[in-house]
Amino acid sequence: MNKFGSLNIKIAFIISGVLIAFIVLYYTQTLAQKIQKREKDIAELYAKSMEYLANDENSSGEYGFIFDQIIPQIDFPIIATDREKKEIILTKNVDYDTTLSESKKNEILFKKANEMDEINPPIVVSYKDSVILNYIHYGQSSLVTELKLLPLFEVIIAGIFVILGYVGFSYIKKNEQSNIWVGLSRETAHQLGTPLTSLMGWAEMLKNISPQTEDLKEITGEINNDLDKLKKIAGRFSKIGSKPKLDRENINALIGKVADYFEKRIPTLVSADGIATKKVHIEINSSGNADANVNKDLFEWVIENLMKNALDAMNKKSGRIIFDISDTEEEVNIDVSDNGKGIDSKYKKDIFRPGYSTKTRGWGLGLSLSKRIIEDYHKGKLLLLESNTGKGTTFRIKLNKNQN
After folding, report:
1. Residues with Cβ < 8 Å from 209, sequence gap 6 or more?
2. How far apart are CA 309 and CA 393, in angstroms?
């Protein structure tokens, strides 16, 4: 699956989760509003009943209807006050300390009434539509309060669902990529075995040619060096997917060994007019005798990948690759710099992504593999420290000296 297909699935997943949350939110809010309206209707019915009784001089026997039929239906807090809001006439479903003095009770109840007025405007009970008799203050039931809080919990649950889904999808994708790496690496190691055995036989035959001239000895020696290199590469691929053994190694010596091998094989740069210029210069600067726990074969592979990237980026008459090695009590830092064409800022975030490459050749696996070797196997860091178009690039490797 390509980058954009994977991104589209993640976006669709997130949008679906948010949409579900908003649908549930809308539904519960609508339900809460309906219950609030029902409570308001009951409060108004109670108020109109009181008003009716106040206006009908012959309705003294109708009080039982209010207390038997209307008040039992009220499941939300309600407070009735006189017209001057100085006396409490009736309360229902209001929690307060009944052992308090009358003045303290009234203070608490009027405070609650004011709080209710902020939720719902009080209902007026009047006599013949002209004289105000009472005010009915009412709040909202615990059911409405719980319904209003429900969307918050639903949004949180939906958010957790989206996050878990996203993390799970990313983990599955990463696991698939790891399995591809392991399968590809082990198959490569297997495929290298046959030609390596054959080449070693041919090299042995060259040694037995007589007479052995100096040129032939040099050629045979370099062939053996390359064969050793190929065996090491096959060994590296076979280590992918298994836990490598880390040993205490001198970082300066390892980098120096890789640099020596490359200097004999670096192609000569060619200028625009076709005239060959000097070779790329490799420089190693170190502030001390840096040691760290590394797997020699895998670490050398990382250095080679960084050097190959630097060589591919050379577009000038002369080139240089500089290793600046520094160490502290806790870690070793290795800065690998070149004076190549640099990396465009819009590509910087993708350079470690598997399969990404700006070159016409290659699969874009070198930096991704190097990052995995340093961070997964050595618990260190590989990062792009600096890159300027036309000036060059610097990568930094950070190794923890205490990593076992």
Report:
1. 216
2. 10
Identify whether the C-beta of residue 313 lies closer than 8 Å to the C-beta of residue 359. no
State the average pLDDT for the chain.
76
Cα-Cα-Cα-Cα torsion 184, 189, 190, 195, nearest 10 degrees, comes to: 130
Could you tell me how far CA 111 lies from the centroid of its own chain?
Answer: 48
- Per residue in 302-346, pLDDT (tens digit) is 998 899 888 888 877 778 899 999 988 889 999 999 988 888 888
Can you tell me which residue has the tokens 């039929």?
69
In 3D space, the residue among 85, 42, 38 whose CA is nearest the CA of residue 66 turns out to be: 42
User: Could you report the per-residue pLDDT of 241-255, keeping only the tens digit for each?
Assistant: 667 788 899 999 999
pTM score, two decimals?
Answer: 0.50
Task: Look up residue 53 and give its amino acid.
Answer: L
* Res 351 pLDDT > 50: yes
279 burial (CB, 10 Å; 0-12 / 13-18 / 19+) is middle
3-state SS of 209-225? Answer: CCCCCHHHHHHHHHHHH
Q: Are strands 247-250 and 291-294 parallel, antiparallel or unpaired?
A: antiparallel
Radius of gyration of the chain from its Cα atoms, rounded to whole angstroms: 41
